[in-house]
Amino acid sequence: MRLDALLAVFALLSAPALGQDVVSCRVVSIADGDTLICLTAAKEQIKVRLAEIDAPEKRQAFGERSKQSLAELCHKRQAQVRVVDRDRYGRTVGRVICAGIDANIVQVRRGMAWVYDRYARDPVLPRLQANAKATRTGLWADAEPVAPWEWRKGAATSSKGSDVRTASLTAPAAAQPIARGLTCGSKRTCGQMSTCAEARFHLAQCGVSGLDRNHDGVPCEALCR
Q1: Is 178:143 a contact under the CB 8 Å cutoff?
Q2: Does the active-site annotation cover 49?
């Protein structure tokens, strides 16, 4: 973890001011790859959203891996939350340092989260993302990774349609080239998949998590390795 510690120090020195409030707490649970719950010394429970990054949703490829990565960094550890804001869901938004490690930075460096361009201010994060992408680290190993905010748009659209199981509704626009001609039907096993592209589609867009039994973001290893 030495590299992670150096990155944390560098980020804290180079990043713009991220807010004046600092909350000390112990992380008690991990919701997903960019959200955790911690408990202060006063026994106040706080839900924290990591600032400037956006992790894959649970039903996306690498969603579970991203959650596991954040758990490895922060679960049951003491954290310092440099508060940036509070979002519309009442969550504290901030930079999270767990046992001296900047979790926001490490999630991006490991390819376990995207830089949330809409809110990003730290110039370190895009550089780390570019390196993760170039080395096909984490979620960047996928041929066509879909940004979580685009995936959520697709999910929202599908919930309004009459046929929520069609690819045209469930897949975000960015995923359409690899999803062309595919639909979310009754297929649930790797034996029913004819190609790696079909397996990836059913994992990422249809939520068939059983295709990725070891939670590494790659479905049906016999087809996709």
Answers
A1: yes
A2: yes
